[in-house]
Amino acid sequence: MHPPLRPFLAADHAQALALWRRTPGVGLSAADAEQPVAAFLARNPGLSFVAQAGPRLVGTILCGHDGRRGMIYHLAVDTGHRRQGLASALLAASIAGLRAQGIEKAHLTVFRNNPEGLAFWARAAVARHELALFSVPAFPHPVTPDLHSTHPPRESGP
Asked: What's the Cα-to-Cα distance from 68 to each of 17, 51, 88, 104, rounded to whole Å?
């Protein structure tokens, strides 16, 4: 049995960031700093969740939508709490929240060098091989030193 879920609060940021840092395959950027996460949570109530075992955060999912499609970020479960259905429960809670708000589908991105993440999502979602993902920065967002990722640097395009 996994720990109970509850809504992700802005006050959870420090523990969530610590979990993301120790989770292989999670890429972090300036958007994962305290203020941007708090703003994201405020804009998307009832969609992001955490699991807490005692005083420690052991699972997270960030979820939001633009009124048309949902986006899922940072589904992460602490190593000692994996294989207990926690990731699936976090995902189900966010999908139920999206459904309650009339959103019929959510998208997510998984780094190709994240085999555990790819395996989970291959079981939990539909892979869209016909799509290509592109990113257009609105302005430069250097990775802040305290949010650095353990990911190898990704190639940047022209």
From this structure: 28, 27, 23, 8
